Amino acid sequence: MISRPISPARWSSDPCTRGLLAMCVLIGGLSIIFILDHTGYPFAPVRFWIAKYFLRTQDLTGSALLIAIALAAYFAPARSAALGFVDAVSRHPWRTAAITFVLLCLGTLYVEHNHPLAQDEYAALFQSRVFAAGRLTGQFPPDLIGHLIAPDYVNRFLYASFSTGQVASAYWPGFALLLVPFSLLHAPWACNPLLASLALVLMGRLAVRLSGEPRAGGWAMLLAIASPGFTAMSISYFSMPAHLLFNLAFAWLLLERTKPRLFAAGLAGSFALILHNPLPHALFALPWIVSVARGPQRYRNLFVLGAGYLSFALPLGLGWPLLLGGIQGHTSYGLFGADAIDPAHRVAEFFWNWHIQLRSAIDLPSLHILAERTSDLTRLWNWATPGLPLLAATGWWLGRRDTRVRLLGLS
């Protein structure tokens, strides 16, 4: 959040700027030390698992690059034209989003080569094409299932029946449904660029609404566009741009607690739950739901919000596991399930599996898990605009007396 504009002449001498530079250099240096230690330098990276390979070959240089960018930005003369550009973006969010959409589409086609590189991406694209063909499941020759789907991926990314040949995505179907119109137009590559561009506009409006500073919208949009994490996901077939858009819409709608906005927030949250799995939105929404439950007219508001949530989450949240159970006999992983399990048993087993996963999620972490989470934080730092996590934390701290800012921070 921008509390006061800093003139170009005072930019490099501002204490906040110097502090941000020092923290960027410090965290970047610590990231380099961690990567070298975690990957066992000087072992050859060709022997690594993919996560450590990326840390050594991409995030090591990424940390050094972010330090260089921060130093260059600090010592470069600040120009009023830069702030004028922020003002222009603030005044024309839709024009900025339209230009961003075109550039992201070009990135999808010519940088990502319009290819679902990960199995998570392929599963969503596959399921969208199945839906576009008017079917719930794909159909492979049963005898070729083992040849068309890698054995390690059966019942992990795609559910498949060796007896009927039915195939469906293991992920919940929301994002695949969003892809359907684009698949019908033979342009699925345009889906995520469009979702990301809409998220930019909503992001800018949230920033202006919460800060009261018109320029904050331009800063928010530019900080997102400059983040490799945002742009890279926006030219992929991952569901993260959809999660960002629906979560932003959920928060935007709950800034005011009228009946129509509460119900619409429930609709947005309901669809966010079934985008690919419910946990991302559930964690984002929990502080807001608690706030509604503690606010005035709590029972009425919770009822209206809950009615919106039931719209997509009830039929698809329960129906999709039942469909997968019908393909393979149960909803847990395994190549050969008992096909004669009744639907009630499938639902019970599905929720029992979630119970087991939640219990494992709250176990005390081992040193290995702590190291993996630290590597995730290193990637978060390297795949964002230099200093952005610090700016986000600082904005939350400065605005912590505002309930809406506090809720976003908790999310």
- Order of strands, main sheet, comes to 1-3-2
Gap between N and C termini, in Å? 17 Å
What is the structural class? Answer: mainly alpha
Low-confidence stretches: 330-341
Overall pLDDT score: 87
Number of strands: 3
How much strand?
Answer: under 5%
Give a quick account of the main beta sheet: strands, pairing sense, barrel closure.
3 strands, antiparallel
Order of helices and strands: HHHHHEHEEHHHHHHHHHHHH
**What is the helix tally?**
18
The value of Rg in angstroms is 23 Å
Can you tell me the overall shape? Answer: globular
Report helical residue fraction. Answer: 55-70%
Offer a few descriptive terms.
411 residues, three-stranded antiparallel sheet, 3 strands, globular
Write up this protein.
The protein has helices at 15-38, 50-75, 80-91, 93-110, 119-132, 145-148, 174-184, 191-211, 214-225, 228-234, 240-253, 259-273, 279-294, 298-328, 343-361, 367-382, 388-398, 403-410; strands at residues 138-139, 158-160, 166-169. With 411 residues, it is mainly α. A 3-stranded antiparallel β-sheet has the order 1-3-2. The protein is globular and about 70 Å long. The chain starts with 14 loop residues before the first helix and ends with a helix.
Brief write-up:
This protein is mainly α and 411 residues long. The protein is built from 18 helices and three strands. Helix 1 packs across helix 16, helix 2 (50-75) packs across helix 16 and helix 13 (279-294) runs antiparallel to helix 14.
